[in-house]
Amino acid sequence: MFEFATDDERGQVGIGTLIVFIAMVLVAAIAAGVLINTAGFLQTQAEATGEESTSQVSDRVQIVSQSGNVTDSQEVDKLQIILAKAPGAGNIDLNETSVELIGSGGQETFSVGDEGNASIDMFAGTSDAVLIDNSDRAELEITLSTDIDYPVLQPGDRLSVTFTTASGATTTTEIRVPTTLTDEQSSVRL
User: Fold this and answer.
1) What span, in angstroms and rounded, lies between the C-alpha atoms of 72 and 18?
2) pTM greater than 0.85
3) Which GO terms describe its biological process (predicted)?
């Protein structure tokens, strides 16, 4: 029923088992190396995606106030918008920010940094058009129908203004011109 192996046969079985064991360890080590390499690549890619997503959400401007210049013919020909950086946002270069106007006069998209589209006046911080600190404020003045190809606003007009920063974060505000403008008004809060 039981067979007994001689000493020669036992040695050969042990060496064969050792060779198979070493081969399995090598295969497992190669597979582990591939898995670790893939995991490192995926982690790096996930971190980059997370940083870009965070920037698209948090690196946006905040609108502090908005007003308009009233002409003698009771029209609004200039928009003055005071901007700050939103809480949690990084540095925002206003020269790389685009503005989109949508209203009854059509749609117009332009970059703030392009010559002649808008003027930027920094109240605090650097002389560059970069919002660095939460206390920094910038006045963006847009002259309608002169700087950009968008008609002046009439009483009762509505205008949607969307700011998109370089990271892709957007801020939208609604501008509503009062239905009645008088000769005594030189500016109006929108």
Assistant:
1) 98
2) no
3) archaeal or bacterial-type flagellum-dependent cell motility
Domain boundaries, the chain: 1-58, 61-189
Phi, psi of 12 (to 5 degrees): -70, -40
Residue 180 backbone phi and psi in degrees, to 5: -125, 125
Return the H-helix or E-strand segment holding 61.
strand 61-70
Run of H or E including 44: helix 7-58
The beta strands (E) that lie in 71-133 are given as 76-85, 92-93, 98-103, 106-111, 119-122, 130-131
Tokens standing for residue 90: 């990084």
The beta-carbon contacts of 166-170 under 8 Å, at least 24 apart in sequence, are 166/59, 166/92, 166/93, 166/96, 166/97, 167/52, 167/55, 167/56, 167/59, 167/90, 168/55, 168/56, 169/55, 169/56, 169/57, 169/58, 169/59, 169/60, 169/86, 169/89, 170/60
**Residue 169 Cα distances to 15, 17, 55, angstroms:** 66, 62, 7
| Distance (Å, whole) CA 97 – CA 161 | 13
| Cβ atoms of 153 and 75 closer than 8 Å | yes
> May I ask the CATH class of domain 61-189?
mainly beta
Q: Which amino acid is at 138?
A: A
